[in-house]
């Protein structure tokens, strides 16, 4: 058996797989320490314009060295791969624990919340705002301590910038001001997410949970929720102070630390007085001069979604459908639907992901394709849809949806509900309503 090595690390089995990377179990041959090695394909992240995002995520994880944050040890690179060496966490996701056992005891919920607040507060002290705090992104180590992970949506604002603009995160955990598109304070928004997590730990379910996105946003905006009868008064009071829809009135982390319910059995984590953080390995991994393309273009360029040429557009046209020439005997276009957007492709993709997840479906993204799957809206059968973003002509992108499995009627219902929640990204011709009025007035004259 050949043992594969990268630097001082022996690589073992695959323990996880994502859209852009595989995670391998590995062992440091010098110290014997077990680590998780995230293996990222260079060409994929260059093509998909992910270089800056992944570089930012890695830099943030190196900056935030805290006992309750997953530690990034170092970054290695070859001509074709980037190897991110992470702390190996064995206890799984906090989310899985809630799914298996339901609500946690008051003492256990408080312990995890105390650790979450400690970790988030430290992130904020470094100018890092997570923006996607949820039980799925909170891991547990072998001692049962919490570890904050997945800084892919984190913000590290430039000096002088106090308000963030990007709407991101998982809808059920997102603060109302993030959804308002008016700018928000990242630290205050993270506190809201921590409050939702505390509620979930103690209740076993979400405070805001609606399949209809409009109804969900409305309830979040008004902080319309109620605490179960088993919540102790102290926890109930704290949650209501955290889930205040007015960010100016919302309790701060400093105030949470003074709260009587929070302080019970609280032992603040001990931090090292000083720990040098070196980002040289990050820069070396991403700024490899060999990664320049042979055609003279920078390796950071991205072709983006596939570009539809004139023939593609003819095939996709409702007026001239040539699909039957290539797919005789099958009505291949019957359950195919599409829409056009003038928003950037990455915004279109992330918006679709948020809506699909809010409808209760799982999403899997690879490049500019997304697979949506789960139980049908009637909860009677398995259902999946393939969505792909195409570039048409600046500034337009087309999203093509195809039923992969499931009932045809369910698919059409899914499409209608899905698109009704994407009004802000679906483009409609500006004179569409005008043409309708003209047509009506002509019919009247006749």
Question: How are the elements arranged and paired?
Answer:
Elements: E1 4-6, E2 9-17, E3 21-28, E4 34-41, H1 42-47, H2 51-63, E5 72-77, E6 81-87, H3 94-101, H4 106-125, E7 138-140, E8 146-148, H5 176-179, H6 186-203, H7 213-222, H8 233-242, H9 253-258, H10 260-263, H11 280-286, E9 306-307, H12 310-316, H13 323-326, E10 336-341, H14 345-358, E11 362-366, E12 369-375, E13 382-393, E14 396-405, H15 408-420, H16 432-445
Parallel strand pairs: 9-13
Antiparallel strand pairs: 1-2, 2-3, 3-4, 4-6, 5-6, 7-8, 10-14, 11-12, 12-13, 13-14
Description:
The strands form 3 sheets. This protein has a 6-stranded antiparallel beta sheet with strand order 1-2-3-4-6-5. The model is unreliable at 158-162, 288-303, 314-335 and 432-446 (pLDDT under 50). A hairpin with a 3-residue loop joins strand 2 (9-17) and strand 3. The protein is globular and about 60 Å long. The chain is an alpha+beta fold and 446 residues long. The longest helix has 20 residues, at 106-125. It has 16 helices and 14 strands. The N and C termini lie far apart (85 Å). It has 3 domains: 4-88, Phosphorylase Kinase, domain 1; 94-263, Transferase(Phosphotransferase) domain 1 (Transferase(Phosphotransferase), domain 1); 306-420, TATA-Binding Protein (2-Layer Sandwich), CATH 3.30.310.
């Amino acid at each position: 058996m050949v043992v594969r090595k990268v630097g001082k690390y022996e690589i073992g089995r695959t323990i996880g797989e994502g859209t852009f990377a595989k995670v391998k179990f590995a062992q440091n041959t010098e110290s014997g320490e077990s680590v998780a090695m995230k293996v990222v394909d260079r060409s994929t992240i260059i093509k998909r314009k992910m270089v800056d995002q992944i570089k930012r995520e890695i830099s943030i994880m190196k900056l935030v060295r805290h006992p309750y944050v997953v530690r990034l040890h170092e970054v290695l690179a070859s001509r074709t791969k980037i190897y991110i060496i992470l702390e190996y966490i064995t206890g799984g996701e906090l989310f899985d624990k809630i799914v298996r056992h339901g609500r946690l005891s008051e003492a256990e919920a408080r312990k995890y919340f105390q650790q979450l607040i400690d970790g988030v507060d430290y992130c904020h002290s470094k100018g890092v705002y997570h923006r996607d705090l949820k039980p799925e992104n909170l891991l547990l180590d072998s001692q049962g301590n919490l570890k904050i992970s997945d800084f892919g949506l984190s913000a590290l604002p430039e000096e002088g910038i106090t308000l963030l603009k990007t709407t991101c995160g998982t809808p059920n955990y997102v603060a109302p001001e993030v959804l308002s598109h008016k700018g928000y304070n990242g630290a205050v928004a993270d506190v809201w997410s921590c409050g939702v997590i505390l509620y979930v730990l103690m209740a076993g379910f979400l405070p805001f949970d609606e399949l209809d996105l409009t109804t969900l946003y409305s309830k979040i905006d008004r902080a319309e929720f109620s605490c179960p009868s088993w919540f102790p008064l102290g926890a109930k009071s704290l949650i209501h102070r955290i889930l205040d829809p007015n960010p100016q009135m919302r309790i701060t982390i400093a105030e949470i630390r003074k709260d009587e319910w929070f302080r019970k059995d609280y032992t603040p984590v001990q931090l090292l007085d000083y720990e040098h953080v070196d980002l040289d390995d990050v820069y070396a991994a991403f700024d490899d001069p060999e990664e320049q393309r042979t055609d003279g273009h920078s390796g950071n360029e991205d072709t983006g979604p596939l570009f539809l040429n004139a023939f593609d557009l003819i095939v996709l046209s409702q007026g001239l459908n040539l699909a039957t020439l290539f797919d005789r005997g099958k009505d291949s276009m019957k359950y195919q639907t599409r829409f056009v957007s003038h928003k950037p492709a990455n915004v279109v993709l992330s918006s679709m992901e948020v809506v699909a997840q809010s409808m209760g479906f799982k999403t899997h993204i690879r490049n500019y394709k997304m697979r949506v799957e789960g139980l049908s809206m009637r909860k009677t059968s398995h259902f999946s849809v393939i969505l792909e973003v195409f570039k048409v002509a600046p500034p337009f992108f087309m999203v093509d949806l195809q039923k992969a499995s499931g009932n045809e009627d369910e698919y059409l219902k899914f499409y209608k509900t899905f698109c009704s929640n994407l009004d802000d990204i679906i483009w409609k011709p500006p004179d569409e309503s005008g043409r309708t009025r003209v047509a009506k007035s002509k019919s009247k004259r006749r």
